[in-house]
Amino acid sequence: MKVFHVLPLILLLLLWGCEVQGRLVSIPTKPDRKDAAATARWLVSQNFWGVLSTISIDLDGAPFAKVVSYSDGVPNQGSGIPYFYLTTLDPTARNAFKDERASFTVSEYPLGTCGKVDPMNPTCSRITLTGKLKLVDEKSEEAEFGRNALFSKHSEMIDWPEDHNFKVYKLEIENIFLINWFGGPKPLTVEEYFNHKMNNRLRSLMD
């Protein structure tokens, strides 16, 4: 009898787990590790949060890192450019107005595709994009694109307090550090990153 009492709870937990991991169903297959540009764009497109680091104005120039939500486009149609929804009530945005230098790191681990390895295992891909954190002109088409990209992955943002004055920021990428296997970082230029062509199915969705 005790088994039957526990079964509904087990089923509920399994269903809850499927819902939480449901994001995995829509994640395209991980690219060939030999294709650095494809791996980099896949990582940035499929992820939805990472660690954004800026130069602190409150800590005498020390690095200040913070977990942030982001999006580079609507699902499976990423532009490669990380967009953020930030407020100057938070140190990150204030830091950027003083010194735009920033880096942004995302890991494959949250996607659930690393298996049982540690997040620091080189087979679990990770990427650090370094460049300048810039405020996007809120009246521009890019700002509209950024908002749509962010709200498509983070619908809660739509209802964030208006008096917090959240605005769209982007990372203007200048350098890329990618680890997706043993042997150190993969050589990858910014041009190669942005020139990577998505597969035909995704391209057709964007036409």
Automatic annotation (TrEMBL):
Family: Belongs to the CREG family.
Gene3D superfamilies reported in the protein's UniProt record: Electron Transport, Fmn-binding Protein, Chain A (2.30.110.10)
Top-level division of the source organism's lineage: Eukaryota
Span of domain CREG-like beta-barrel: 31-195
Pfam families tied to this protein: CREG_beta-barrel
Coiled coil start-end: none
Keywords assigned: Glycoprotein, Secreted, Signal
Any GO CC annotation of this UniProt entry: cytoplasm
Full protein name: CREG-like beta-barrel domain-containing protein
InterPro entries in alphabetical order: CREG, CREG_beta-barrel, Split_barrel_FMN-bd
Subcellular location per the Swiss-Prot or TrEMBL entry: Secreted
UniProt keyword Signal present: yes
Main location: secreted
Signal peptide annotation: 1-22
